[in-house]
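Standup, Tuesday
Yesterday: got the pipeline producing structure tokens again.
Today: sanity-check two examples.
Blockers: none.

Example 1:
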Amino acid sequence: MDIADFVASQTQLVERERDYEAEQSTALASNWLPTELQRLGFALVALRITRHTTGLGGKSLLTLEAPTPGTALLANTLRSGDIVSVTAPVNKKNLVGMHGVLTQCSDMKLTVALRTDDEVPGDWHERCSVRRLASDVTYRRMLQALRSLSERPAAAPVVRCLLGNSEPQFTEPAGEFFNMELNAQQQKAVRHAVTATDVALVHGPPGTGKTQAVVEIVRQLARNGRVLVCAPSNLAVDTLAERLGHPAVRLGHPARMLPKAAAMSLDALVKGSDSGSLLRDVRMELDQALARLPKAKRPERRELYGQIKDLRKEFRERERSVVAQTIDSARIVLATLSGAGARKLGDFHAVVIDEATQATEPECWIACIAGLPPTVTSGKPVETMFERVRHRCPNACVMLTTQYRMHEQIAKVSSQQLYENKLAADPSVAGHLLSDIAQSTDDTTTPLVLYDTAGSGMYEDTEAAGIADTDSKLNRSEAALAHAHVLRLLAADVSPRDIAVISPYNAQVRLLRELLRDHVEVEVGSVDGFQGREKEAVVLSLVRSNENQEIGFLSDYRRTNVAVTRARRHLCVIGDSETVARRSPFLNALFVHLEDNADLRYPDSM
């Protein structure tokens, strides 16, 4: 594969996607007032700034609350980690505000870390708005990685292997395992990865213990040098961070991390370092100056602005040195693929990319460019960097084939359709059921339940057509069936913490959360949010039901496979077989399997 042609093709695809998202974001800002966006859950208006302090990088941290003290914020879809805009207190379209990251989000208040040094106007403290934005950061980093790739010598061994132009090479295995409980397949995968001189692939279907193998691979590689560990999502990175049990630095915003991973975040490590006390002194002076701003008269305000500017400069200079020292001394550095392009990270002995087939090709190149020695990728097959290398260089890949999560009937379709029928359930899980951990009922004694809504008139709806979240589909009838099924599981003494309700569509997720608001321990989320997770019982609402048999991104079998394989003992699928099964070979196979093996339930008879 010619490197110039490859870079040109990938660049064009990234630019198309970036431009489309920018158009959607512009349309949202142009066509909807802040109050209308608030009604849809994408914004909050008429907020008060109740606190103004300093965060990492000298950034301003704004705490915002409802206009009436002690009043909860209106229901919204804002989440920690969102890119947001803080804008003036006027109800106009196309408002240009101060951009930042939502670092904390609760029922009572929001905290936003601003991205600029601009001072917040005094009148905003009593009334301002916050709305979610699209971000082009990842696109810029992908394009930069592709430009860097085009400037590198095509003869570099890792580049040749990743483009499928040469076979990977391996050395003789050496060294003992850290985790002596790995099974033979996992040990083989670890040896395969650790002995690679350029590229190795570890193919781990759901439930096969891939994460345990990846953790061992990282620890083994760290014996010989620094390791950069990446994945497409924050959740996947945090899962590895929590299981490593090894000193490491987690890059990224703490707001996007799980609590245990946040403890090893760059922010936390810098604050806790020996040099952190110097930073705290400057931060305290900054916070005191910022606190005086809202009530300062004009002459004093000008003096305060100058003082704040000087303090921020001093803070950043000191922090830059501490950050560089912290990263350089870390044996293991963890980041999302996009986050790996956020700063210069130094040299690495190896790069490990987990869930590689869930990432786009340019995202993977961000991490590879950050440290271009041997690269180990793991994931499930699809035509990505992972699959191209797998097809062109078969000896680069090993596969884990024993899964320790699912009842054998839950895993069967994935095994047949995606893993050449090689995926086998370990005896410890092959027959386990909810009745083993709860009461024995019709629901808990079967691993599979299917509610087939075909012919019942339970058609989908579109939420707020024309706004950027959207085409987000919902299906109220399916949501009611899911709600009723969850209540029956709870009545059978299934722990709410063991139940997940999943849907591919965000609008359906919002509806389900509303229906289950009295059962907060039942986890409700999107398919993407459950990547790498598992629950004892999963209720899956497929949503799509229409006369034209349109299924949108349900045709992406990866998403459906992720949803199905989250369940350990019980999987309940709710969907219209006439709509979804005809347009997707994977969904067709799933419904055939369910019709033959599941407890079939038809809504018309209920």
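Example 2:
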Amino acid sequence: MRAKIEITTAQHVVIEYQLATIGERILALFLDSFMFYLIILFLMIMIPSVIIYLVLPLFLLYHIFAEWMWGGQSVGKRILGLKVLSIDGSLPSFNQSMLRSIFYILDYFFTGGTLGLLLIGTTIRHQRLGDIAAGTTVIRMKSSDHMNLSAILSIDKSNYEVTYENVKNFDEQQIILIKETINKYKKYHSDTYKDLLIDLADLCSKKLGVERPRETIHFLNTIIRDYVMLTR
């Protein structure tokens, strides 16, 4: 089972992400190294007497600027759907990207990768030394809370009566959003999610042309059940 991390945003919304595995991070580094090797090979043909001394500095600079300018992603991470995030959920700053890159020297080059892989495999947030120093980790792009409609409910159609016929005008992503927000409120009991549920209930009642009931969660769950009943 994949390890996960819960990140609380500045708006006090908790988002759960899957952490990148050791294998994914090794593959991302391999892809970056292969691409960088091709660039160095080209430069060595053009300026052979100079480029040999610049391999390591250029490799570190590549990671600094790639992760800083491309939203926490190098080429390898982008291909694999991975991203560097600060522990507070924000994108890495220039200083954080610089720290991560400098510590490549200890994590991988001086120790043959042993230190970096050992720390990724044993720390709770899957952090190598550079991540620990910079206050970052590497996550998969998609939140682990993502679900599809088939995972929401199983309804006995023979005994169910639809309450809101117009719910068929909703789309599947709207229904999934409602269910995910309910789940997060039940898990975290956050005022932020409570307010989101009220806002969703207001929007749904307007779309259905009805007055919003006092029982917000019951109302939203009825919408979900009606949608599943009418569209499946």
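Quick observation on example 2: The first strand starts at residue 4 and ends at 8. The mean pLDDT is 86.
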